[in-house]
Design brief:
Layout lengths: L1 E6 L9 H7 L3 E6 L14 E4 L14 H16 L3 E4 L1 H9 L3 E17 L1 H4 L10 E14 L5 E6 L2 E8 L3 E4 L9 H5 L3 H10 L5 H10 L1 H25 L26 E2 L3 E5 L2 H13 L18 H11 L6 E7 L5 E11 L4 E9 L7 H16 L4 E7 L3 H9 L3 E12 L2 E11 L3 H12 L19
Parallel strand pairs: 1-2, 1-3, 3-4, 4-9, 14-15
Antiparallel strand pairs: 5-6, 5-7, 7-8, 8-9, 10-11, 11-12, 12-13, 13-14, 15-17, 16-17
Length: 472
């Protein structure tokens, strides 16, 4: 059995759990992310553990590797569906990576405190043969405030509702520490961030008392970690037995119905802020030329393979040339208030037999950019594709196009890599960044769009009350 472990500081390792791993001769690969280690190919591993650390899930500027780690967690849980265990920061990263929300606690929860299993937790295999109320070492200033879509809360405490959760069949996480060994508290007390939180919460010279409290419950900690480890390894074995394999014993993908879908429906998509219509030069040409020409520079054309245009006639020739094509299929974004076309976008690389489709040729005028209509337009197009049965919805852009990369991640796309020297245009090289949303993630992404686009999320003057969540 091969275990992959993500660590964020040298002293927060699997602790007591290391003894059980050694006894079972588990092959462990540790990735020390804060030390610059890179995440390896996930495929060879049977399980992933994500440990704690002094940083927070939103500290991506100070710890830029958090972005890649979240992507890896999302890929592990959503795409590979293999057993996962997250502790403390690992618990929060699981939530954040899958579209949940984390937030600060005031005051932090620090000490040897009880956690109680929920009704679901009492029947979950990870807590089989474990007490309904368990002593636990707590040392956290952040908590999961909103679990990911579909998560099941398994344990709570009086001040933290989500002490443990399960996502899917085999991804578990705990806010508290199950890996405690004799020197854990003493060692962690030397970490500046942990020491500061401890003294601010409990008082100066709080460390000796916490060491004594942990020592008093050490036998309970060890017994609980042994049982939880046993339960987790049973889940790993069960997954290995049930994961799809061919007659040669090799892992293979999950079964997929071999059913083609239809090319994208070209009928109008109606939203609250805008509507999406099949591009028509007669109906949309004048308006599009007007709004595109209103920009004070040509920056919006830089990363498109055509434009800018010298005249309206030249623009209309191009517009007519892309109208009526089967692939790409161009649409106009029409402002709901004015009835004027203010942008274009298309479906392209449509593969009905593979149920894959891409959105591209996106050119939003300055009047459309950064408006609710711009977000809604993208949502309407992706909803149409998934409603028709497509499994994969792609977004590709020049790797140097920072606004496009940021937009893709804001809209819920997952970055999948960069294809170097993928093509060339306008006399220059293009490295292409790939992003995608897949149908297994779509329900959670769609729910977030619906929440954000709801009238309740906008003030009387049209300002958003909360942002569209990042899914990276």
């Amino acid at each position: 059995m091969r275990l992959l472990v993500f660590q964020h500081i040298g002293c927060e390792h699997p602790g007591q759990l290391r003894q059980f791993l050694a006894a079972d001769s588990v092959e462990v690969t540790t990735v020390e992310l804060d030390a610059g280690d890179t995440i390896p190919d996930l495929d060879p591993f049977d399980a992933l553990w994500v440990m704690g650390g002094p940083m927070d899930v939103w500290d991506v500027k100070a710890c830029p590797w958090l972005v890649a780690e979240k992507r890896a967690i999302a890929a592990w849980v959503r795409d590979l569906g293999r057993p996962f265990l997250g502790l403390c920061l690992g618990h929060q990263l699981l939530a954040d990576a899958l579209g949940g929300t984390c937030g600060p606690m005031s005051p932090p929860e620090i000490g040897v405190l009880d956690v109680e299993l929920t009704e679901a937790g009492r029947h979950d295999p990870i807590f089989a043969e474990m007490a309904a109320v368990q002593p636990a070492l707590q040392w956290h200033s952040v908590q999961v405030t909103q679990p990911p879509e579909g998560a099941v809360v398994l344990a709570s405490s009086p001040v933290c509702d989500v002490q443990a959760m399960r996502v899917g069949r085999s991804a578990w996480s705990m806010q508290y520490h199950v890996e405690v060994e004799p020197d854990t508290v003493r060692t962690w007390g030397e970490v500046p961030e942990y020491k500061a939180a401890l003294e601010a919460t409990i008082g100066p010279d709080a460390l000796p008392a916490l060491i004594e409290a942990a020592d008093d419950k050490l036998d309970d900690f060890v017994a609980n970690s042994q049982r939880l480890y046993t339960n987790f390894m049973a889940a790993v074995e069960q997954h290995r037995l049930t994961a799809p394999r061919n007659q040669l014993g090799q892992r293979i993908g999950v079964p997929v119905d071999d059913v083609d879908v239809q090319p994208p429906d070209e009928s109008t998509m109606q939203g609250r802020f805008c509507r999406i219509e099949r591009l028509n030069p007669t109906a949309h040409g004048d308006s599009l030329y007007q709004v595109f020409s209103a920009a004070d520079d040509d920056a919006d054309w830089t990363y498109l393979p055509y434009g800018p245009f010298e005249s309206k006639d030249e623009f209309m020739v191009w517009l007519s040339s892309v109208t009526g094509l089967d692939d790409p299929v161009f649409f106009a974004v029409v402002d709901g208030a004015t009835g004027k076309a203010v942008g274009v976008a298309s479906y392209l690389r449509v593969k009905p037999s593979q149920r894959s489709i891409e959105v591209g040729h996106i050119h939003f005028s300055r009047s459309l950019q950064r408006t609710p209509a711009a977000t809604e337009a993208m949502y309407l197009m992706m909803r149409r594709a998934f409603d028709q049965g497509y499994r994969r919805y792609e977004w590709k852009c020049d790797d140097l196009n920072a606004p496009s990369r940021a937009a893709a991640q804001r809209l819920g796309f997952t970055y999948e890599g960069t294809f170097r020297q993928a093509t060339h245009y306008k006399g220059r090289n293009r490295d292409t960044a790939w992003f995608a949303i897949t149908d297994d993630r779509w329900p959670a992404v769609a729910a977030e769009f619906e929440r954000w686009l709801s009238p309740d999320n906008f003030s009387d003057d049209g300002m958003q009350q909360s942002r569209l969540d990042h899914w990276s």
